[in-house]
Fold each of these.
Amino acid sequence: MKEKDLVIAVDVGSSNCKAALLNKSGQVLKVATKPVSLISPKQGWFEICPHKLWSDIYYLIQTVSCNFKERILTFGISVQRNTFITWNKDTGEYLHNFMTWMDKRAANMCTEWNNSSFMNVFQWAGWVLGSLCGSHRMLCASTFKAKCNTIPMRLKWILMHNRKAHALLKSRKLCFGTLETWLIWKLTKGRTWATEFSCASCTGIFDIWTMSWSSVMSYLFEIPIEIFPEVRSSNAYFGKIDKSLGFGFSVPISGVLGDQQASMFGNLLYCDGNTKLTLGTVISCNVNTGNETHPTSNSIYPVIGWKLNGQDPCFIAEFFASNGGRAVEWTVTSGLVKNLNDIDALARDVPSTEGVTFVPAFNGMEVPQKDAHAETSLFGITLRTKTSHIVRAVLESQAYLSCHVLDKMFQHYKKPLEIVVDGGTSRSSFVLESLSQISQVDLQKSESVDGSLIGAALVAGLGIGLYQSLDDIKSSVNLEFSQIKFNKNSTDTQVLENRKKWYKSVEKCVDWSTILP
């Protein structure tokens, strides 16, 4: 009988769904990918069909496990966070499609809520109590706002507008689940209804100080806590893959993480101060803060990085721009670029954008301005403008936006000597070189674009005993990085002028959709 020494990991991202087969050294032996099919029945609505997603995941698992079924030891999961679904506890019937984190149908509810007298009092009370007691928990309350990319207001919208969900809530038969909960439920044929700490901590309903679902948020949004699943450690046992599914193997699910946390884990960023910048659908900066949380400000939030069995949680500070990486994908879907492999060469065809600026806001804007109604905009088009100018402007926007994220983060945390960079857009040397020079920080680019997959596999390996500790993972896993160093002697004032012009363009995008009839 062959030795069981391989791990299967699934990563359900915002753009792609992947499955991979990995060995103990973290090497990806096989990988398969399918695009995530987004449904947009109305402007600002973004959904995923659960039946289509399950079909795709099933195919991917079958593809990577072929010829290796006897060697598979365990299974790990990484997912985009805050995408959720509800279903009938008794029958398993879905009540609607997945509502993704990008969905904006509750934007007006969020605006009304945030501008209410109640919220003013709530935030003021949090600030007073936080200042008097030095409580990070209370300081968090002082900056709390309802947001579309967290769950409470979108779930409230579902309960208000979906009659079946409302009826099942009343009869205590409603099940709620984010992507990892649903996938565990499917893989175990309904035997396990659970989530994991890093995923729960991002929902806006979980209290990271009590490590439990928040009774305060439950009361504020009138959502009963009993509809939320059990929360388990990142390397806990989440049940066994059911034999009847027909995969040809039945192994434990022993590792689950949110995608950003999985990327941190997969890049071995286990020490206090380690910093990662992900250039993907979301541009996200994460700083490992160890076992301590930090007070929030300027949209920097403390979330759980991972919680290992028998250990205190590791926290990370997170700041992100949800209006980022889809711009690069748009260059292909719009026909500007035939293949993403050609995008750098096209951008370098011209020495500058000749005044063209691009502001990405395909699902509203988080930063530099916070506006759910902002729209993607292109400025400065002239009769001389070519495709190369527009493509260069799109890539420059990624560098400017990323630099803004880093600037905000390092107002509160010590600026590291170097930052690990991953995500699909990190394949663009143009973006990385521009970013390094503007931010004056050396970058370490992960040679693997599958950081979240590797992280899911590593935490699952830790859960099953393939690794004994984080140190064991570090000594077992071989990762490759390339360095991008900024030129300390460069005094390119044009770059700074272009960045100022980009900020002016950003200001013109605010409230754009409310201007239109």
Amino acid sequence: MVGILSSNFLFGADFKYLFQERNMYDAIAFAGPLIIALLFSFWILKTYLIGANTNKLPPGTTGRPFIGETIPFVTNPLEFYRSRAQKYGTPFLTHVIFAPTVVMGGADEEMRWLWNTERKEQSKHSWPSHWTKLMGYGAITNSTGKRHRYLRKMFEPSFSPNSIRSYVKVIDKCSQESFEKWADGKYHPSSDIKVFVLRLLFECAFGAIDEDVLEVLSSDFCIWLNAHSTFFPFALPGTLLARGLAARGRLLSFFNKMIADFKRNNSSDSDLAKNCVLGRLCYQEDDDGNRLSDEDLSEKSRFHSSLDQFLLLPLLLLLLLSEEECFHNTRPVFRLIPMTSPCMVATTITSSSSSSSSSVKSTNLFIIFFAGHDTTYASVGSILNNLFCDESKEGQRVLNALVEEVASFKSVNSDTLDYDELKDAPILNAFLAESWRRDPPVGAGSKVALQDLFYKTFTFPKGTRLHYSIHLGAYNEQRYHHPSEFHIERFLPKGHPFVKEDKWHIDDGGLQDALKPSYPIFGGGAHGCLGSHFAKLEARIFLTRMIQNYDIEVRHSKKVNFPLNFWTNEFRLTPKEKK
């Protein structure tokens, strides 16, 4: 009925009047109700189509019209997952970020089954459509099949356990220099750590970089990341998405220049070309002898359905009618960004403005730098909260044990810490593993079925979004006793003197060093985290040097739930008296 009324409204409208008078208010009055009616019609249609298959889909609810359960999902993802898992079990059906979604991850076998569907090319990695645009169509995070394997093969050597040994000296030096700078008697915001981690990544990959440039890059990364939390998927001027895309454009311009400078100064047979991240990105060949293309992705656009085109027409009409008022008589150009939901994004620019070319190379360098610094920044905030904000006796016992262990390192007084000593430190690694388990930086991953899939008694039709919850895996009560409590004993070797009660211990088999369903903190399957070993090395060195040389005070810890999961805080470092 709503669809019929909206159709009558559309075709019965006096277009001639709108075009002749070019009346802004009439255009809004025409387009606004039409868009709302069509979106609501789409939601009704989609909901009832799903309802026809509820006997084969998991139990659950699709929530409110259009937005579904998006608000409780982004407000507190952990509570969202846990409450619905308790009510419906797993997997369960929900509706988040503009699409019906099946959530899995309550049991190891669910995670394993879902990851295997991607290996068998029965599903592919999938994000909300405006996230896909923010990341870039050519990014490794949006790639599947042969292309994804090629990109992964390109980057893996730089982040393998053997390769990251060479980064110890740089990370250690960068950490100590930053700590000395922060030890000024003042409290520093955790945003200082964000800039520090970004500098650390640049120095590991390319060498020193100007501090002012880092500040600008860090700010743009913040703007870009915040755009992922928007509910409004139209890149209209002033919106979060528009600002995020603009920040991405500035970052891509920087990385494009970096790539051009590298290629100009380093030939394909140079040592840097063969051994560093940027060299592999520029020169490595795939199995067919082809190098990564410089294809420009900035103009790539396509519609996934005629319905999406239809839904966008009123918005385009509104913008065209307001051309004189909004664009000062300049000719507007529209870039249409594909969406898998009716929420099509229209990015509007004038002919006098310019946009950065988004090559596959700069897009992937951009993603590597985001993943390499934002998730580590999130990890450090949670580490500071879990170690220094727990004033209980158990919290103090953990801190004292950690201080004692790192003080016993043979490399404690040397300029560079020893890689093997860090890797084999039981208290240090158990603390980090538990901190990541309780506060995983990324709460979930998303895939879409490429064919009808069958799991137990359920059928997931082609096109179903399948969501694996890292939160559910990390809080699995069948594996972790009282999972909301912080206990490093879970990951300590059996019989370790710190362990008082065996009930906390799990037979991990080194699970915190593997991409396993039982410890999904770094994801798993074909899209498991490339930089997990590098991230662990950063955290080990950062925490070791900090508690070796400083007394630390942390205050004003505040939880951030979305788009990343971590704690912000303020910290103060006071140098310890040397004995």
Amino acid sequence: MEYAGKNMELLPPKVKEWVVAMANWCKPDSVRVIIGTEEEKNEIYTMLEKDGVIKRLPKYENCWLARTNPQDVARVEAKTVIASEQEHDTVTITKLGYHVPGALGPWMSTQELDKALAERFPGCMRGRVMYVVPFSMGPVGSVFSKIGIEVTDSAYVVINMLIMARVNTEVLKTIHGDEFVRCLHSVGQPLPSDRPIISNWPCNPEKTIIAHIPAQKKIASFGSGYGGNSLLGKKCLALRIGSTLGRREGWLAEHMLIMGITNPKGVKRYVCAAFPSQCGKTNMAMMTSTLPGYKIEVVGDDIAWLRLDDKGQLRAVNPESGFFGVAPGTSKKTNPIAMQTIFKNTIFTNVAETSDGGVWWEDIGEEIGKGVTVTDWQGNPWTPEKGTPAAQANSRFTTPAGQCPIIDPAWESPEGVPISAIVFGGRRPEGVPLVYEAYNWAHGVFIGASVKSEATAAAEFKGKVVMHDPMAMRPFLSYNFGYYLAHWLEMEDFAKGHPMPRVFHVNWFRKSPEGKFLWPGFGENIRVLDWMLRRIDGEDIAIPSPIGLLPKHDSINLDGLGKIDLDALFDIKRDFWMKEIDELETFFKQEVGADLPPAVQKEMDDVDRRIKEMKQ
């Protein structure tokens, strides 16, 4: 069947050929190509409001509330797969032949995936519109950028993609042949439905699958409308497909913020930082400095694409055009810049609603007004006495990056911004110092590979178990982790003698034996960044330790901060670190095995030796 949907004439031949094939497979009632005009946006918002999928929030300018099915609230890592012809391309040698997911990448053969998709997609869009969303991750026309075409039967996905990616007809003009990523998405609940549609949110949790075929530049997502599973330009393309393309083409796709920091002398540097989800990337990217004279500007809060220029300088772009941030915990205290950004042109998902037309969530830092009632994220009346959260723990805001008051002037530069430092970190309540610096690039790669953190609500894990999350990329790796580390190492060779960025590790979350945070965090983190920038400038303010370079005594500016227990913050206990290295060695043996690059093994052996040489 030939579909002659709205704006189909705008599609390049190879794109149209694929779209028609997907339409014939999924059987939508109609097809519509999205072109990103204001008139089109308003029409879709009006339709979604009429259908009860979103609700206008009159307290703010052009803000909306969506509630999802309670079974569709987060990324589903257990149902996220990478497909390849050769298992070893995706899975490290220790997992070959087991056909069970390791901690670093669930694999499925392309034949198995074809069968799984054939059981799901035929006829899945009956009764619905198939939207065709042409999008650019990265500034349109930049050497960094990649083009995707997402077909979806969810108008909610469309309005979020219009914020999170660059969606317009210029994108279509940049496509040559079949040089685009094919992104297929369906909520998996055709009409008429044989099951209730809860909260006007169609989904199919029992059959959810989020599949990637990197070699073919294809993504197929079925059964979930949640952002991390359905906005296919985000984690799916920008990280999973992106990291594979990066290896092939000589660049990196990473789970990192990008921020610009100008010191009191007017010197500006850019820093990337990789933390697992809900470990403070957005708060750090939008930091309000407590030290006078510092200026912070944000390029991106979640994903960075890094590429070496002709001189060997590592540069980065934010491939996204919006922020998809976690609402609970965001407040004027923790992130005042975010609070200035999100109350216009924003889609809120699974937060609580107030009777005066606003939103509310835990730790928002604002009391509920007198006479104002609250409806929780599932649509039920709520009071604090109820004993349940008003907002879902992973509730989100989707907001345009360009309206952030501290957006960096170069945030859409097609050349990217020059990176001076890369920072790794996670939630580590004990044992790990506030900050330390790598001795060299290979040591920095080892530090990134050794990242661990408490699990958060961004995925389906329960409780506060400390998990390995190397490079903060564990949920997003799309090829063999040993090959991934080797690619990081070879970036130094590609730089042809140009210095690589300094590498640091931070831990804002260390606690006292009484369970209280030892470091105030948030805007005070500028004091740690100040120390890093002075290290980059060559200041002699670091001393060697078994795990890396630590700040010299009194080298971190604590003026006006009150009593801080630096001894506790920087204490390195031999027993803790011996256990840490033992666990890391076991992790590498079980998950990487012989695919572990010798340079990473050497760095681990050196740390192990230095720790064992410590006095008891």
